[in-house]
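Repro case for the chain-ordering regression, as requested:
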Amino acid sequence: MGLAFDAKGLQAYMDEIFPQVAEDFAIDELSEAGITMRLKVAERHLRPGGTVSGPSMFSLADCTVYALVLSRLGQEALAVTTNCSLDFMRKPEAGRDIIAKGTLLKLGRSLAVGDVHMFSEGSDRLVARSTMTYSIPPKG
Amino acid sequence: MGLAFDAKGLQAYMDEIFPQVAEDFAIDELSEAGITMRLKVAERHLRPGGTVSGPSMFSLADCTVYALVLSRLGQEALAVTTNCSLDFMRKPEAGRDIIAKGTLLKLGRSLAVGDVHMFSEGSDRLVARSTMTYSIPPKG
Amino acid sequence: MGLAFDAKGLQAYMDEIFPQVAEDFAIDELSEAGITMRLKVAERHLRPGGTVSGPSMFSLADCTVYALVLSRLGQEALAVTTNCSLDFMRKPEAGRDIIAKGTLLKLGRSLAVGDVHMFSEGSDRLVARSTMTYSIPPKG
Amino acid sequence: MGLAFDAKGLQAYMDEIFPQVAEDFAIDELSEAGITMRLKVAERHLRPGGTVSGPSMFSLADCTVYALVLSRLGQEALAVTTNCSLDFMRKPEAGRDIIAKGTLLKLGRSLAVGDVHMFSEGSDRLVARSTMTYSIPPKG
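-- result from build under test --
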């Protein structure tokens, strides 16, 4: 299954439908192999001590898998998160963006599953991983 | 193991250490049996369509289990989330707070596990559930 | 939604379709509120040291939620496990059956979600918990 | 951190401590990058319809991550599973072994986390994935 968007088109579409997240996330790369999504870390993503908060990591993982689903199904796609597992491995490094590498593990008629590995920019040490399942409602 | 805080004391302590979440969450009830935590739903918690966003639900679950751990271990407690599972069952009802019922399933020397059931206020239909594991670093 | 089976009828039906698990599991109780399923612990369920093995606990949780789904949808039901989270809290007590308390959190058109709490018989200390999602394929 | 065993040595050690699983699993490959573990599919691993059962897949994932932990920590290692997430993506192909590719995501002082991707032999389509967390008790 080919891509319904290129990176620029998908970014523009997501900025339009989710204006409130547009300033948080940027698509660095998109191909049939997967996606690279950046969390543009700002004050509001931090928790006491200065590390990126859990909810910000969840948001990033969720947004990454949603983008993967959209990239295949195109604009008319509806999809809602039904399940998430999330493991936090290491403290992110201070003052760095978080880079998420996402791959689609399954794209079925009613379920899509994506896997996300998250790193501090410039590091190859895993900060967190997540698997997200989206339910795709039947059309019409 | 008794409680190190009552509801009011725990709320005051969390407001102090997490001022940025103080306006989002309120402890409705705290006992040895568990905790009831409220997400005071506001515009910033919604996603397009007007339902409470996934990251807001994650925050609520995370904060609920953290509060359970603090309620037992007291102020000196350090604890970091290491694992989360989250199932989304139903769309929350518009314009209602989300009420989380949390129970501590385990409080060991190095790991604490809590379970959270989330509802729209006034409804007994489950919106989401989550299990969170916190790692408790050795003292000193 | 009412029950399509009583405990005895469901046990008979599961023994027929899953003869290989018939000797492992027994339904102690079934009502609209939930199910109580027993793992009849034998040598083959143990791992070195004499505690019940992880795969046996997984089997019990899986079978419990499958029974919940069957109890509602009846004989014609098809359902496959798509997702599982499992937390191990405490070592089961030696020489005791494991008792699983299962409740259905959601029964939608395409997804069913069940929650299982597992105890050593005669104890109220949680040994493990699991949430299982089953996908229900469209009919015909 | 180097390896405490080579593939042959680890296989021999696991056969000795877990004789009951020795006939189920074989280590195909072990390196610092990860492990390849084979489930030697036999009648007892199947469920009605002839596909590999969920508990067999759980066993394979659990055993794969346990082997990864042993390969680093050596014989004296104690480790117990505390958490598992498991996603089933596709039906395994009939009459084929299941091949698990495992990587260690984290090896901390008290927690180890491993990721497992499972395939039918000869296919690159993912059958299931799992993340397993092991708790490593303090020595002595």
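Ordering looks correct now. The beta strands of chain B are 25-31, 34-39, 80-88, 98-107, 111-120, 126-135.
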